[in-house]
Amino acid sequence: MNHPRSTALEYHEQLAATWTSRTHTGGLARRLAFVQNKILPSAPAGSWLDVGCGSGVYSRILAAAGCQVLGIDGSPAMIEEASKLSAQSLNELNAVNYLQVTLNEGLPFPDNLFDGCICFSVLEYLPNPSLTIRELARVVRPGGQILLSIPNRCSAIRAALRIRRLLPRAPESARFLDYSRFSASRSAAKEMCQTAGLRVRRLDLFDPYIPNQLHPLIPPSLIFLVATKALPTAGGIHAI
To answer: What is the pTM of this model?
Structure first.
């Protein structure tokens, strides 16, 4: 059995220099295209927080669409790479900033600060995903949007990869599963958002290798949610 000798943070530190190029090949490229074409169009202009921004791929996409973006990540190497890549574009220089933040704790921002938040392929690496979702909801203004992904607990491919990680000569491409510990069903993912005061407006399933028409037979790997923070009312809150 494989036992990770490093942390999820250390694992991603090692990937920082090549992370952006990795997102343009194979399954990561298909995931990027899906997010860019299906999920990010839900993001209106405004101030956005990119939680677990990595090398800033999604931060730069939001900035190019006219948003002001703050990207945060626990990895100093990722923040350095994100800053370098954004500085190469003068159009983005004033639209994106980056900050190293420890993501397994509360977020260091006041309530209702951002118009929206994205959190893609991050929750599975954190010790308390429910707390993180509540923190995302706290720092987004009422009526603001939160776009996030959660690994599908029923994923056939993730289950197969986990078995392969137990075998000799396990594929290095599946090493992320040594650190990706959290997953949820569709109903549990929605419930986590609702408990945090969010209304789930859309739920999409995605897999880089399984065609959409086969999803009813072979459960895909990722659950994407587009949620809205409830508006306050005189009697409490109401969903919009």
So the answer is: 0.89
